[in-house]
Every structure is written in structure tokens, then in C-alpha cells.
Amino acid sequence: MSAAGSVVSRGAGTSTQAAPYRCASPGRVAAVRAAALQTPPRWINGIDYLEVAPSQKQLRVVFVHALDQVPTPPLKRIQVEVRGGSRVRDPAVTGIALQGHVLTVDLATEGDFSEYVLRLVAGPGSDAPPDGIDPALARITFRFKVDCPSDFDCRVEQTCAEVIEAPPPIDYLARDYPSLRRMVLDRLATLMPDWTERNPADLWVTLAEALAYRGDELSYYQDAVATEAYLGTARQRVSVRRHARLLDYTLHDGNNARVWVAFDAGAGGEGLTLQGCDPGTGLDGTLLLTAVPGLTPAIGVRAGTGSGSATSAGSAATEGALRTALAAGAEPFELVTPVTLFPAHNDLRFHTWSDDECCLPAGAIDATLRDDDAARVRLMPGDLLLLEARAGDTTGAPADADPHRRCVVRLTHVDPAATLVGGSRQPGPVRRDPVTGQAYVTVRWGETDALPFALCLSRRIDGVLVRDMSGACGNVGLADHGLSASRADRLVPGARLRRGQRSAPYRLPQTEVRPLTRQSRVRAARADGSAGPPVLIDPMGSAVSAMVWDTGDARPALDVRTEGARRSGAASSWTPQRDLLASGPMAREFVVETDTTGAAVLRFGDDVNGSAPADREGLLARVRTGNGARGNIGAGSLAHVAAQAGDVLGVRNPLPALGGVDPQPLEEAILYAPQAFRRQQRAVTARDYADRVTEAPGVQRAVATRRWTGSWYTMFITVDPRAGTAPGPAGTLDPAYEARLAAFVESWRLAGHDLEFDAPRYVSLDVALHVCTRPGYFVDDVERRLLQVFSADRLSDGRSGFFHADRYSFGEPVYLSTVIAAAMQVPGVAYVAPLRFQRLGRPAAGELDSGRIALGRLEIARLDNDPNAPEHGRMQFQVEAGGTS
Question: Which of 168, 441, 659, 816 suits 479 as a labelling partner, its CA being 20 to 30 A distant?
Fold first, then answer.
């Protein structure tokens, strides 16, 4: 640094050589000086160093020799150029001045912080230096901001990097057989240059290919293990299933569909029982098919199904018809429950007791059916009954019948009921209408199967009375999607996946064409109200409960047995399980796993968790195929049954099939499984107990209160039961109902907490309204409609009354505005004014002015308006006729 400004010199490490060299000891300037001292002297000039003036708009370029000595032609402005810069590019040279060794260069502007180059050229557009200027010293690199404050040395070290030896060429991408083979052969050619043989029969080539094969196998195994080791990267369905199971999440493999089926029995089908599925294996139900053009409704009996006797020729014809139907795209179904056919049950009519223009209202749980002395009705409790509309409500034409007004109910009471005598049904005593002499049968079904809509039985249309607009059918059964194989196939064990594996997996080749049936299972309710283990069907459950299940409870429908064990008397059957974690060492159980292609594989135990098949133990498997959303057929799709032509005249499904679900996608399981363990399965706070009890059957809402009772805490749970769940007398809960609730919440109960269940505190209301009617309406009719709307019962159209037991729950206030709004919607009401709006039996506390009756945390509003129980609330209307228009 000099007083004149910043100095850039060769000592600072700046190179001015023509060649792109980096030298630790620059010596060109000394060489130029030494050339002038030779004899004869060689006068060559060049740049020694450069100074930047404080203004940064002037440069002082110091040369080796005086400028008046060399070059002979003096330098001109156009021979001086400044190039470079980032933000300020190529500052223009406005003038130069020569004095001794110094060339002063004036610039139009100062530069930025980047590097610049000052060079001397012969002329514009030329890169050659002027005559007499050394090419190596004709340029110099500098910075305008060298004089700016800095914590570092302004000299920049320029060193040449050391040469790093290149590693031997290794192709890390060589992981398959062709690339590994090429790499080994290349290595051999390097080690043995004289070896040029490439014949596959050569020993060295054979060894190279053997190494490449083994390397390819190891590479795949490493990649597979690394990929399948984590839930987020696994690609195989089996791997994702096992990872999810560790997180208590079940990856389901789909579910088959269920559908109600109605049969039209022929004369030969009197008392014929169509076989249902085996409850253990889910196989061998009576076969049903969707419609195929040109195929008769009854296609004969399949051999080995047990649904009747058949000749070998008939069985062969049935199998041929089945193959034709499946090739045409028919979907197979099989009966879940056995159905006993009677021609008299094909068409059951309602008995209306000489009344006309009748309907079976919504919510009905009983009906009366006509009987016939010639063809007696043989219904029994537990039978299924189809109720359906058979004509349009407005036209009376069968083609206009509403297909949505169909439902199936399970009978709980029949009078007179048929009895079983020698395995056959015998009709009960005849019940007759004492007026008309018509034989009849009274049937009843449960509250769960209550009719969800109204059925019109008879109506006068255009002055003509149309009867039997709705009817019933008794030959009803439940079927599900799938086709049982006619014979068992021998299982062939696959290769053991790892060393020391006790048993090899067994692949089911039938599932490579059609998916294995995952049969729906329902949970039968125990006596305490809790759900029992999954079963194929609950014979005592309602028809509604037969169509409600959890996909996680689905089980594979197949029968696996040891070959020859039945003849020897040894245990032969193997039972499928969801997993083998709870299986003992002697348990003959297995797990069905579905791979990515959809094929099923049987995995047996290891004699620790589940028994392993013996080395020479032959296994036979008979499977059922057909699963997923393909089974969700529409109403009226089924048209064929495996039965004799004279036994069954027709078959149909009045309702669409439900519940068919395809296997769960892997992406969904990978997303949901990490959150599965976050589900709370214990009750700690009062809110936890209330939420758990609310999930119990028949509970609308629950409120829990935690109290210290002397030595421990007690959870007092106040329960609001739904309508139909009768509480005990005097505002208490029925002991049996309370015991069911206690059993339901027991698995969540925290140790040290006692449970007590209480009935809610019902608050009876006293409401009175003044109502004016519209012109043309009778006062009595309007009042009757008002009493119906504000009743605590279920209305004839299926709606609930305003003060129905399920409308209000704990702490929910009753607003006067909603009461007036409901009254104004009644036909014929023109004006409503409140007269009383308060609690019954208590003085008014401003409820009428505030427009609401507030209730406490454990209180529920009640207004039954029952004259037999006036203490349960009353509703009065003061109705008067309005003015004429």
C-alpha cells in the first residue's frame, strides 16, 4: 500500500503472464530488466504494477522502463482497455498521460468489488500487444476496492491443487446378471490379457456367469429386504399387512356382498329345504346365478352340494350350464341360511278385517296374513318374511309399484305357528275371522325390524277399490357372493423363504383367476348386551342385524384338511385365523395372506405359534372364490338357482346386494396404520366414561360425574335410554339393562373406580297455546292435528312427535320459538300465541318472557300429555275459528 492509493503488483500474487499459469515466484519483470543489460541491449517494456487512486477513477500503471524510451511509438488512449466487472462493466478510458515510468489512466466511472483487467493492445479489436510491449506483461488484474477495510490479508494465495489419483473403475450400478457378468469378464481380461476366450463352455466364462448369477440373487435380496423392512417403503401386500399388524391395524382383503333372495316354489318343492352354507367353512350353499339369456331359472342340482339328489348326467349338465353362465359374465351367489320352501308362501296377502283403504303404517311390528284351507301357511318364529309394495299408490298398476318399498323382517311370533313333526313342518290350528270365516295368521317381528315406510294395502282409485296393493313372501333366505369349488385340490408347498423356516407357504392356484371369498361375519349380541365373537349368521338376530358387520371380521371361505385323516379318524381340519399370535403349539390353524397379484397364500405355524404340517403331510383345500364390489348387484339381478325345474319356478332378489368391498389399497393402509395405536381404549376421566356408555346399544346420551365416596372414586353415569328401552319404575333403570351397560364398559374401566348407573331427571313441562284457525278449517280437526304433532309418540308417517323421548337429551333447553314454529306448520293454523310456558307444578320463573325453559346438566325435558299420567307434562290448546275471507 502506497500513499498514492491501492497497489496491485506481482508480489501480491497477481499474474500478468500470457499463459494461464500460477507461479509461486514471478520473475518476468526481472527477466525484462536483465534483457536491457545484455550486449547488445534488448529493450522490451511491460507493466510492473498498478496503483488505484483514492477517487477510484484514476489508475497509475508503473512500467519496467521509461515510456519515452520504449515503446518507440508513444501509447495512445485507444491502446489502453479496462475489461471486467460485475455490476459496472468495462469502465471507459477517457484519457491517458505518460510521465517517466508511469502511465496515468483516467476512467469515466469507478468499478465495483469484482476483478478487472487492464491490458495494452495494438488497436481496437486486437488482442496483440503494441510493438515493444512484452506479451506477458501487457496486462494486469486488479480490484478497485483493495483499499476497503477488511479483516483479511488482501493477498490471495494462488496454489496449484495436488493431483488425486483416480480410483480403480468400479461400476456400482452393476447389480443385475448382465452387468455383473460383463464386469467380471472385464476384470478377468485386465488380470489375464492373454485370455481371449468367450465361449460359454469355457471354464472361466462358466465361473464368471455363476458369480454373476449369485451376485444378481444377492442384490435382489438386499434391495427387497431394505425395501420391505419399513412400512413407508414396503411394496408387497404381505409386508404392509404385517407391519400394520404390529401397530394393531388390520389391512383387510375385502368383503363379499350379501343379498336377500325370494323363491317361487313349485308343486314339487313342498317342504324342500335348500341348503345353506356350512357355518364353519362358508362352503356348499345352494348356488344362485345372475340372469343369463337363454338359461332356465332352475339349472339342476350340483353334484356334491347336498341340495338334493341328482343323477350323474344331471350333474354334468348342471356343471356345463354353470361354466356357460360364468363365461357369459354371471356372478355366483350361495345361500347362507337354509330355506324351506312351500308354494303357499309364494304369495301371502294381508287380512284387513273387512276394512278398506288400509295401510300398514311406518313403524309397524305386526300384521295379519290370510291363510288357506287348501294350502296352509307354515310360518314359524325365526322365518324371514318379505314385505313389498306390488302396485302404484296413485294408479294401482303393478308396473308402478315402488321398488324401494321392500324390506325383510325376521318373525318373532306366529299365531298359529307351524310345528316340526318328524323333520317336516305341520300347520297349526286354524284361526278364523268370526265374521267372514277367513282363515288368518298373525305375525310379529322385532322393534329393530320395524317397517321403515308405510305400505298401502288397498285404496279407492277413480271410484274403484284396488285391493292387495302390497303383499308378502315367506320363501326368503340370505345369500352371499361366491362360488364353492366342486372338489378339493392338493396343495403343493412352495420354497422356504428363509433358512430354518419350519413350514413352507402353500399357494392357492384357484385364487389367481378369481379372488378368494372373504365372507361377512356378524357379531351376535350376548345376554349382557355386549358383542360376541364373529359368526356367519345370528339365527336369533333381526333381519337388519344380518346386514351389519365390520370388514375386519371377514373370514376366508375355504376348507383345508389333511389327506386321509378322515379315514384314519385323526383330526383333519385346519382353521383359518387372522393371525397366529394367540395360537398354541398344537393349534391346527393357519393364516391366509394375499399377495400383490391377488393370489392367496396359506401360512402355517412353526410349532410355537400354531402347529406346522408334517414334512410328508398331504393337504387338501377346497376354496370359494368371488369377492369385492362385483357382488353389489342391483335388485332383480338373480334369476337362476341350482334346483330341479319342478321344485323351484323362479328366484329373485327384491333388494340390491350390500357390503361388497374390494381389498384395501396399500397406500391407504400406509397412511392410516401409524395412527391406529392412538385410539384410546381406557376410560380415565368422566368424559371418557360418558363417551363409552353412549356407544352402547340403546343409549342416546350419557353424562358421567366423578365423586369421592369415602375410600375411592365412584363414577355416577346418568343414562338417557332411547325410546323402547324401558327404564325401571320410579325413574330408575331396569337392573338387567344396568347390568348390560356395566358389562359393556367393564373393559374400559380404570382400576379403583366403581360404577353406578342412574336414570335421568325428567322435567315435566306445562305448555298452553292460543290458536286461531284459517277460514274453511274445522276447529276440532286443527286441534287434533296439533295434539298429534306435539305428541310423544311416533307418527303414522314415520316421523316422531315434537316431544318424542329421543328429541331432547341432557341439558337441552326448550325454546318457545321452535314450539310456535312447529304449530304454525300444522295445516289450518293462522295464528299462535303462548299462554303458558313453564315447568309443571312450579311457579313461572320468567320462561315465557325469555322464550326458553332452561334445564340442568342432568335434566331432560318431558311432555307426554298422557291423561293417565298427568305428572309427565301437559299440552293444552285454546283453538278458535278465524274470520271468514
Answer: 441
DSSP β-ladder status, 102-107 and 58-63: antiparallel
Torsion angles phi and psi, residue 534, rounded to 5: -65, 135
pLDDT of residue 739: 86
Cβ-contact 99, 129 below 8 angstroms: no
- pLDDT tens by residue, 52-76: 998 899 999 999 999 988 888 889 9
**How confident is the model over 252-295, as pLDDT tens digits?**
999 999 999 999 999 888 999 999 999 889 999 999 999 999 88
Neighbours of 790 (CB within 10 A): 20
Q: How far apart are CA 307 and CA 315, in angstroms?
A: 12
Ramachandran region, residue 578 (left: φ > 0; alpha: ψ -120 to 50; beta: rest): alpha
* Dist. CA 571–CA 63, nearest whole Å: 110
For the entire predicted model, the pTM comes to 0.70
Cis previous bond, 91, omega within 30: no
Among left, alpha and beta (phi > 0; psi -120 to 50; other), residue 244 is alpha
Provide the 3-class DSSP secondary structure of residue 490.
strand
Q: Please, which residues have CB within 8 angstroms of residue 168's CB and are 6 or more apart in sequence?
A: none
> Each residue of 327-350: b (16+ CB within 10 Å) or e?
eeebbbbbbbbebbbbbbbbebbb
Q: How confident is the model at residue 501, as a pLDDT?
A: 60
Residue 624 and residue 515 in contact, taking contact as beta carbons nearer than 8 Å: no
Neighbouring C-beta atoms of residue 464, cutoff 10 Å: 8
**Nearest-angstrom CA–CA distance, 23 and 75:** 29
Backbone Cα Rg of the chain: 48
| Res 17: pLDDT | 45
Contact (CB, 8 A) for 274 and 307: yes
Distance (Å, whole) CA 390 – CA 651:
17
| Residue 308 confidence (pLDDT) | 39
What is the three-class DSSP state of 691?
Answer: helix
pLDDT of residue 125: 86
Question: How far is residue 285's CA from residue 338's CA, in Å, rounded to a whole number?
Answer: 8
**Ramachandran angles phi, psi of 833, nearest 5°:** -135, 130
Torsion-angle region of residue 65: left (phi > 0), alpha (psi -120 to 50) or beta?
beta
Please give the sequence-ordered ranges of beta strands (E in DSSP) within 633-734, or none if there are none.
638-641, 648-652, 699-708, 713-721
Cell numbers 547488445 correspond to what residue? 40
Secondary structure letter of residue 648 according to DSSP: E
- Among 643, 663, 659, which Cα is nearest to 651's? 643
- Please give the Cα distance from 626 to 481 (Å, whole number): 6
